[in-house]
Amino acid sequence: MRDIHELKYSRLDIDTVNRMAAKDQETFVRSSEEYYNAQVFKAATLIKEGLDRLNFVLLCGPSASGKTTTAHKLKHRLIAQGVGARVISMDNFFLGIEQYPKLPDGSPDMESIHALDLSLLNDCFDQLFEKGKTYFPTYDFTTGSRSSMDHLIETGPGDVLIMEGIHALNPMVLSHIPRESIFRLYVSVRTKFVCGEQDVLKPKDIRLIRRIVRDHKFRNYPPESTLRQWYNVVEGEKANIDPFRDDVDLKMDNTIDYEVSVWYDLLSGLLETLGDGAYQKYPELERIFGALTMFEKVDYHLIPQNSLLREFIGE
Question: Model-level pTM?
């Protein structure tokens, strides 16, 4: 298992991955999952140590970084340590596709913080702390619309609220809450897969793979829609996440080391739907898909049901 104290961009060589996959797939899967789970345990421990002053955990990360799974695993770990915890997704405060800000080409800008109803978000948190309970909205990605206020959230004394979203670290969010009351956590894919000195798959590539699979599975988006949006997603991250990602209490690497050995089989069928000319239209696909063929395959049926990867592939 990798050292959880190496929480910076790290490098894994293809030969190392292939050697582990060829030797014992089940052990490779288990050790990769343990590396991730050890980081969740570390975050929960730090939060518990600061309970005398902490009320919030703001968990931020770019698209397809596993924010939702990490938030819920962190909640369960805190509960196991005797700390009350609830998870709230910022995605539920999206205004709705018709009300999003517009990009220069007229398409909706889902990456902007102004795609969120910040006034409602802050009102909900104020009511939660005044009354101990309030109703939150729910957002439906398949319809691009927000439901009525139908999700009841209740808290007790000493509970920690975990809010996850791409804008969780933005100073416009919960700006009236003292900084010392907030634990700030940044999660992302932070491992490069390399061949010698050459980068073969970068963290951004892994996230694109995850997003293609997830969008098809859970959001009714075909791969081409995801690919068309990807440039705007990345540019939005540069503007809305990068300026705040270093002002945090902890960074997590949400790479699951064996995932590069399972994506080929999970992705190939989806890419067939793009038809002829896909590589000319989306040249990054040819590079990424070619890179995946360099890894020894791991049977994706070995992915645990509680793995972070289930956020993207389902059960």
Answer: 0.90
- pLDDT, residue 156, reads 84
SS3 119: helix
Helix (H, G, I), strand (E, B) or coil at 251: strand
Rounded Cα–Cα distance for residues 65 and 203 (Å): 9
Task: Give the strand pairing for 56-60 and 182-188.
Answer: parallel
What would the two tokens of residue 287 be? Answer: 């590079």
Contacts 24+ apart (CB under 8 A), 236-240: 236/109, 236/110, 236/111, 236/112, 236/166, 237/62, 237/63, 237/111, 237/166, 239/111, 240/111, 240/112, 240/113, 240/166, 240/167, 240/170
Residues 273-282: pLDDT tens digits?
A: 777 777 788 8
Q: Which residue type sits at 65?
A: S
Neighbours of 30 (CB within 10 A): 15
- Asked if 250 contacts 186 with a C-beta cutoff of 8 angstroms, the reply is yes
